[in-house]
């Protein structure tokens, strides 16, 4: 057996079945992700650019920086304690990660990002709406619609 290139052996016929299976797997993966992207696009509401920028700069960036600092500090503390890499090390970091997630979701978020705009809209509905006509001013009555004589057809 003489190898003439990557995946090519001299004197053998190319495997049609392998080629068809590879193409089919690629097509299935592509179709799955196209479906997933279209599904997400049709399901979720469209965000305004200022909303996305506000979320990124005011929520995601500070959260990511705090998370990096927390994980770095946790790793330094575990290394200083002399704990070697292994299952216990991973479980401790997982517990720190879960605690950070709980703190973000229930303390830092305060039901702003997770609840979304629909919950804020519901909260605003309970508030008193301002009157269209300020108190003390005379309301303007709508003009009377003139009545016309009915038109009889020929």
Detailed description of the structure:
By secondary structure, the protein is mainly α. The protein folds into two domains: 14-44; 47-126, no CATH class. It has four helices and two strands. The chain has a two-stranded antiparallel ribbon. The relative contact order is 0.04. The mean pLDDT is 80.
Q: Which terms summarize this structure?
A:
about 150 residues; flat; two-stranded antiparallel ribbon; mainly alpha
Secondary structure layout:
Blueprint: E1 3-5, E2 8-9, H1 16-43, H2 49-80, H3 87-108, H4 116-125
Antiparallel strand pairs: 1-2
Helix pairs in contact: 2-3
In short:
By secondary structure, the protein is mostly helical. It is 60% helix and 3% strand.
Please bin the fraction of helical residues. Answer: 55-70%
Note poorly predicted spans: none
Relative strand content: under 5%
Q: Please give the order of strands in the largest beta sheet.
A: 1-2
Give the termini distance in whole angstroms: 102 Å
C-alpha geometry: flat
The chain-level mean pLDDT equals: 80
Rg from C-alpha positions?
33 Å
Q: How many DSSP H or I helices? A: 4
Write down the domain tally: 2
> Which H/E pattern describes the elements?
EEHHHH
Number of strands: 2
**Helices and strands: which structural class?**
mainly alpha
**Biggest sheet features:** 2 strands, antiparallel
């Amino acid at each position: 057996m003489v190898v003439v290139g990557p995946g090519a052996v001299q004197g053998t016929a190319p495997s049609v079945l392998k080629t068809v299976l590879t193409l089919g797997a690629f097509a299935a993966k592509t179709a799955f992700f196209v479906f997933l992207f279209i599904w997400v696009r049709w399901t979720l509401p469209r965000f305004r650019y200022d909303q996305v920028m506000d979320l990124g700069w005011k929520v995601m960036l500070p959260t990511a920086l705090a998370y990096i600092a927390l994980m770095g500090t946790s790793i330094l503390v575990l290394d200083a304690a002399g704990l070697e890499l292994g299952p216990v090390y991973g479980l401790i970091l997982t517990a720190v990660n879960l605690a950070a997630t709980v703190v973000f979701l229930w303390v830092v978020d305060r039901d702003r990002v997770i609840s979304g705009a629909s919950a804020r809209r519901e909260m605003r509905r309970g508030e008193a709406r301002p009157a269209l006509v300020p108190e003390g001013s005379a309301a303007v009555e709508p003009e009377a619609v003139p009545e016309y004589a009915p038109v009889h057809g020929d």
